[in-house]
Amino acid sequence: MWLHVDPRSAVPVYQQVVEGVKAAVARGVLKPGDKLPSVRELAMELTINHNTVAKAYQELERLHVIEVIRGRGTFIAAEPVPADRDHRMRELKHAMVRWIVEAHHMQMDEEALLELFRTVLQEWRNGREHE
Amino acid sequence: MWLHVDPRSAVPVYQQVVEGVKAAVARGVLKPGDKLPSVRELAMELTINHNTVAKAYQELERLHVIEVIRGRGTFIAAEPVPADRDHRMRELKHAMVRWIVEAHHMQMDEEALLELFRTVLQEWRNGREHE
DNA sequence: CATGTGTACTAGTTATCATAGTACACACAG
DNA sequence: CTGTGTGTACTATGATAACTAGTACACATG
Known about the structure:
2 copies of one chain form a homodimer. Chain A folds into 2 domains: 13-76, Arc Repressor Mutant, subunit A (Orthogonal Bundle), CATH 1.10.10; 85-129. In chain A, helix 1 packs across helix 3 (50-62). The mean pLDDT of chain A is 94. Chain A has a two-stranded antiparallel sheet. By secondary structure, chain A is mainly α. The first copy, chain A, has helices at 13-27, 39-46, 50-62, 85-105, 110-129, and strands at residues 66-69, 73-76. At the A-B interface, helix 1, helix 4 and helix 5 of A face helix 1, helix 4 and helix 5 of B. Chain A binds a DNA duplex through helix 3.
């Protein structure tokens, strides 16, 4: 299965589902048109409530990652339209600043941080090839 | 003031204080030995409860960012010893992966993402010089 | 009609965050 | 010693979010 959930994590379960699906799409595990499990199926598989899955699906639909068709099921959306691009860009920059601050408190050089990012990016690329 | 707090934000107020202090230290606005406002002073200034400030201070002490001396006050710690380096490194990497995925859903090229990070790093360096 | 979809609703539990008020232990200047 | 300023501890209360459980409804399809 391309989805794992940790009920003891601090991050909400529905959000873990959202991120899991987004990651699977980004990796190419899920492609446009692919059918997702029904809310009840996925809930059974992850041993969580079907309402929690439904909440995740609604969030994913809001993000234009999936398309929901009542009575038929949910599918990966054709084109991931970036709706609120500016807003997400600001958040991305903000996150990067947090990395810099965090790295500083880990006594990590800024150059080392940049190198780390390159490494993570490379590892992600490799992991993508293996699927 | 080097600290701002948004009570309507989704991120907890005490955590905003924690991040604010860490950022100020990283920028050099606060230096080792500097005295922080008392919990009641800062609470008054930010119009929040003094218990909330106390919670933030306790978290900062746990992170070895500040030193607390009962009856005297709180001070920026001498050397920011990275205690749980491995754990924080894993979290940092995890955060980077999340944003790689996010960038993909924004239809942003990986090279563009790397370039953006270089830009943010440069901007942060400039902002630091001005203080 | 029967089945499988997503959706909507109520109810209840648990946990976190924040406030408010009070009290205590310690350091230090007077 | 006393008064004041520290951080800390405690109880109580309210607000909100996340999750579970159960039930019911509307729609698509065979």
